[in-house]
């Protein structure tokens, strides 16, 4: 067992990139402010100094151009990490992501390999307005050919980012800015976390709560709240949405017979909707009640804190949904 | 330019002819396939524009890369992709270069440097920039030629790509095949400048406006750009004025937005007839020898036709392969 230390998620992600860039010179990093500034949240700090401006590139504000360039580099032997500051800016590059990044391998009959990872930091709930607030995760889950990663802890973030960089398939890696300073135990020694393996963050027997990103933490808080009333909630973090570990979710529901799915996206055709549909199809007989979704409201995110609170999922809403089932 | 022209070997001049005939006859066959109802989807032919693809690709090595467009056959053939796998792909056969998943607009054969053709107008240029970055970092000395049309020159991706290639000094040649119309819209109505190549100035790179129906002029200009790229001197924008004899797609007469006179006028400037005349006038080759080349190419096309027709469509086992 290797030594563990407590580090925050930003540092864990930085270590992941640093280790992979040391391991393989084909790994490069491109994006807005990733070089001299070290990223707007410092996630790539020090990488320019260690690896130089050839491999750590500050880009102009040309998302379509530099995401396309990342794809072009990936299909010709490099292994780029491209940072799109916030997911709200992903639409500027959506043509390249959905028409090239996701599909080139399939469309060329396996001749091209798009070994590209796009990282982006969700700033939902920060009060910066509706175009600095979205995750847009369901867009990517619905695009065949992309893998989608949604870590909630420093340990998961590091192990999953290393796997993402090494994966030959294109990966959308969603970080959550409000988690960057959260600390957690991370081994000194190298480790990788395979895709498609959910993590049970808390065991329970009375109901299952599936949540992603920072909402895993809200779900854990809700579970503590429920425990006061004698309700034992199991909290499942899928960690990757593509591929999705259906088995762990279904096995949990078979044990608890109740399901609440928490989603940082609008409920229509969202992550929660998909997980609910899978459980309804594959574990219907084990359910003792309806599947509850706790998602964002189907509205653009406002700036006023009073309204943001009403719009986003939180501990209280998860507790309320759970209580309806018990 | 005259000196450069004189320096071209007779063998090369004849090769340029043969390559243009290969592209022309291949496209003619694809048109025939379409008329026979054999092609899934739509079909865009390069008839009349052959000199651009051929003149540029004749300067490239096998390792150099090309990105292309929805009008992809000319670049694919000129870059060395075998006709048989290209024809099979256009018919959606499992023996096609992309195993029947790409089709006419999405051809790829990286082993000969045909990287990818994107049917999204303007979207190939960023891929070329990335390939150029990759070539620079991996020190491969490859050159990347990115073909696109006049329509693409008004997309954001085009402008972002020229800027990126310029600031990073990448070995990319941007080749605009200006056939004067984006489907039906004349460049006169869609584009702020008469010559798209003047946009090179805004991105601090050389820009050339050339006669895209003169294969020798294309060849010489591309050679200048390739040499620049090879010496790490950065990107070049070439605008080759040309014209498609067909409409936008096969079956579109293209005369509801172009006058018949204009089409006829451009047909007189057919790059193959023109180059044939050039070769004969300078007695570089005899008419009989040229006719023999035509026959050889016809045989090659016939072989590709047989291969494509005889090939099978992919079976269900192919459906979910290569998603990741």
The mean pLDDT of chain A is 98
Helix/strand order of chain A, N-terminal first: EHEHEHEHHEHEHEEEEHEEHEHEHH
Q: N-to-C terminal Cα separation of chain B, in Å?
A: 49 Å
| End-to-end gap of chain A | 41 Å
Uncertain segments of chain A of ≥5 residues (pLDDT<50)? none
CATH superfamily placement of chain B:
Thiamin diphosphate (ThDP)-binding fold, Pyr/PP domains
Order of adjacent strands in the largest pleated sheet of chain A: 3-2-4-5-7-6-12
Largest sheet of chain A: 7 strands, mixed
SSE class of chain A: alpha/beta
Compute the CA-based radius of gyration of chain A: 19 Å
User: What would you call the shape of chain B?
Assistant: globular
Supply the CATH architecture of chain B.
3-Layer(aba) Sandwich
Instruction: Please tell me how large the radius of gyration of chain B is.
Output: 19 Å
CATH topology descriptor of the largest domain in chain A: Rossmann fold
Oligomer description? heterodimer
Strand content of chain B: 5-15%
Describe this structure in words.
The complex is a heterodimer of chains A (326) and B (324). With 326 residues, chain A is of the alpha/beta class. Chain A is 37% helix and 21% strand. In chain A, the strands form three sheets. Chain A has a seven-stranded mixed beta sheet with strand order 3-2-4-5-7-6-12, sandwiched between helices. In chain A, strands 9-11-10-13-14 form a five-stranded mixed beta sheet, with helices on both faces. In chain A, β13 (259-266), α10 (271-282) and β14 (292-296) form a beta-alpha-beta unit. In chain A, 57% of the residues are buried. Chain B has a six-stranded parallel beta sheet with strand order 2-1-3-4-8-7, sandwiched between helices. In chain B, strands 5-6 form a two-stranded antiparallel ribbon. Chain B is built from 13 helices and eight strands. Chain B has helices spanning 2-6, 10-35, 50-57, 73-78, 83-90, 124-137, 156-167, 187-190, 199-202, 215-230, 260-267, 271-281, 287-310, and strands spanning 65-68, 114-117, 144-149, 172-178, 181-182, 185-186, 207-211, 236-241. Chain B is an alpha/beta fold and 324 residues long. Chain B has a single domain (2-310), classed as Thiamin diphosphate (ThDP)-binding fold, Pyr/PP domains (Rossmann fold, 3-Layer(aba) Sandwich), CATH 3.40.50.970. The termini of chain B are far apart. Chain B is globular. The interface between A and B is large, with 42 and 43 residues.
């Amino acid at each position: 067992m290797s030594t563990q230390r407590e580090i925050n998620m930003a540092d864990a992600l930085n270590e992941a990139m640093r280790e992979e860039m040391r391991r393989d010179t084909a790994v490069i990093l491109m994006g807005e402010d990733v070089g001299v500034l070290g990223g707007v949240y410092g996630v790539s700090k020090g990488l320019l100094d260690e690896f130089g401006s050839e491999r750590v590139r500050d880009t102009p504000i040309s998302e379509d151009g530099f995401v396309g360039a990342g794809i072009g580099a990936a299909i010709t032997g490099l292994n780029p990490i491209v940072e799109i500051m916030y997911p709200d800016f992903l639409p500027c590059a959506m043509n390249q992501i959905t028409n090239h990044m996701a599909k080139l391998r399939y469309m060329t009959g396996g001749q091209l390999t798009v070994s590209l990872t796009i990282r982006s930091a969700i700033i939902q709930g920060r009060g910066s307005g509706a175009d600095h607030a979205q995750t847009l995760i369901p867009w990517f889950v619905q695009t065949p050919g992309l893998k989608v990663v949604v870590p909630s802890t420093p340990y998961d973030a590091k192990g999953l980012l290393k796997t993402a960089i090494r994966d030959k398939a294109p990966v959308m890696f969603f970080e959550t800015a409000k988690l960057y300073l959260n600390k957690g135990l991370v081994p000194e020694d190298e480790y990788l976390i395979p895709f498609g393996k959910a993590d049970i963050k808390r065991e329970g027997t009375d109901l299952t709560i599936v949540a992603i990103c920072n909402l895993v933490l809200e779900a854990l808080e809700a579970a503590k709240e429920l425990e006061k009333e004698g309700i034992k909630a199991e909290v499942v973090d899928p960690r990757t949405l593509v591929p999705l570990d259906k088995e762990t979710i279904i096995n949990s529901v078979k044990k608890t017979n109740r399901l609440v799915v928490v989603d940082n996206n609008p409920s229509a055709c969202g992550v929660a909707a998909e997980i609910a549909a899978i459980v309804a199809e594959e574990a219907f007989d084990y359910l003792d009640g309806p599947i509850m979704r706790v998602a964002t409201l189907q509205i653009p995110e406002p700036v006023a804190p009073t309204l943001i609170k009403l719009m986003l999922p939180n501990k209280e809403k998860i507790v309320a949904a759970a209580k309806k089932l018990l | 330019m005259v000196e450069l022209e004189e320096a071209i070997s007779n063998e090369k001049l004849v090769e340029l002819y043969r390559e243009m005939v290969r592209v022309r006859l291949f496209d003619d066959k694809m048109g025939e396939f379409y008329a026979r109802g054999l092609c899934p989807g739509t079909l865009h032919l390069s008839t009349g524009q052959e000199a651009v693809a051929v003149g540029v690709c004749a300067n490239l090595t096998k390792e150099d890369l090309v990105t292309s467009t929805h009008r992809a056959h000319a670049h694919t053939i000129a870059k060395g992709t075998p006709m048989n796998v290209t024809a099979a792909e256009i018919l959606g056969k499992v023996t096609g270069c992309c195993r029947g998943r790409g089709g006419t607009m999405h051809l790829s054969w990286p082993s000969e440097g045909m990287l990818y053709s994107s049917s999204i107008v303007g979207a190939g240029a960023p891929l070329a920039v990335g390939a150029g970055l990759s070539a620079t970092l991996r020190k491969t000395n490859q050159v990347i030629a990115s073909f696109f049309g006049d329509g693409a020159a008004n997309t954001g991706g085009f402008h972002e790509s020229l800027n990126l290639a310029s600031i990073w000094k990448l070995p990319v040649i941007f080749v605009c095949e200006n056939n004067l119309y984006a489907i039906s819209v004349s460049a006169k109505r869609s584009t702020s400048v008469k010559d798209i190549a003047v946009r090179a100035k805004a991105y601090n790179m050389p820009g050339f406006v050339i006669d895209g129906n003169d294969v020798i002029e294309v060849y010489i200009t591309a050679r200048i750009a390739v040499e620049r790229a090879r010496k790490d001197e950065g990107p070049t924008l070439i605008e080759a004025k040309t014209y498609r004899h067909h409409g936008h797609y096969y079956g579109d007469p293209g005369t509801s937005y172009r006058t018949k006179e204009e089409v006829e006028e451009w047909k007189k400037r057919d790059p193959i007839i023109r180059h044939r005349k050039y070769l004969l006038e300078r007695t570089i080759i005899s008419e009989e020898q040229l006719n023999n080349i035509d026959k050889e190419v016809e045989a090659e096309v016939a072989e590709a036709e047989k291969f494509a027709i005889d090939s099978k469509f992919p079976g269900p086992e192919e459906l979910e392969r290569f998603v990741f």
